[in-house]
Amino acid sequence: MERWPRPRHTVVGMEEATARRLFAQARVGRLATVTPGGEPHLVPVTFVLVDDTVWTAVDGKPKRTRRLQRLRNIAANPRASVLVDHYAEDWSQLWWVRADGSARVPAAGDEVAPALGALAAKYEVYRTDPPGGPFIAIDVHRWRWWAASGPGPSADDGPSR
């Protein structure tokens, strides 16, 4: 039993446009997928938001294999989320934004080219060492967010649950 019931449609927060802007500007996100055995799997990723699709790529950082767990997870279950957040000692500045959607691993080519360009525009290292892929596209079906106080007007409880 809740001691202090929370009003159902009043949450301090931000407008969707602000949430999407903060999400797009974030330098790192956490990609959440589900293993074939049903376990959660979470990894930090660089990413870009192009329209309503979050793009990330397997890049040249050292890895044991190019057949990463996240790729196997997406092949078995395409549901994925990307979370970005901001932490500060002043908790009135806290916020998070999550993009939930369906992930896919498109073949290299015309669809991937704009994402590669956007990644290179956002991350300097990709200008000289572009990621070779594979690329992951997450088609966003739902945005969720929360903020302790502005960076914008409040959003109702629907998007932030």
Jot down its keywords.
7 strands; 22% helix; disordered N terminus; disordered C terminus; alpha+beta; 161 residues
Can you describe what's shown?
This protein has a seven-stranded antiparallel β-sheet, sandwiched between helices. With 161 residues, the protein is α+β, with helices and mostly antiparallel strands. The chain is built from five helices and seven strands, in the order αββββαββααβα. The chain starts with 15 loop residues before the first helix and ends with a helix. The N terminus and C terminus are likely disordered. The protein has one domain: Roll (Pnp Oxidase, Chain A), CATH 2.30.110.
Summarize the structure.
The protein has 161 residues and is of the alpha+beta class. The protein contains five helices and seven strands; from the N terminus they run αββββαββααβα.
Please specify the SSE layout and strand pairing.
Layout: H1 16-25, E1 29-34, E2 40-45, E3 48-50, E4 53-57, H2 69-76, E5 79-86, E6 95-104, H3 113-122, H4 125-128, E7 135-147, H5 157-160
The shape is globular
- The CATH level-2 architecture is identified as Roll
Q: In which range does the helix fraction lie?
A: 10-25%
Order of helices and strands: HEEEEHEEHHEH
Radius of gyration: 17 Å
Strand content: 25-35%
What is the level 1 CATH name? Mainly Beta
Total strands: 7
The CA-CA distance between the termini, in Å, is 18 Å
In CATH, the homologous superfamily goes by the name: Electron Transport, Fmn-binding Protein, Chain A
Number of domains: 1
Mean pLDDT: 84
Largest sheet, strands/sense/barrel: 7 strands, antiparallel
Structural class, from secondary structure content? alpha+beta
Number of helices: 5
The low-confidence parts are 1-11, 151-161
Per the CATH scheme, the topology name is: Pnp Oxidase, Chain A
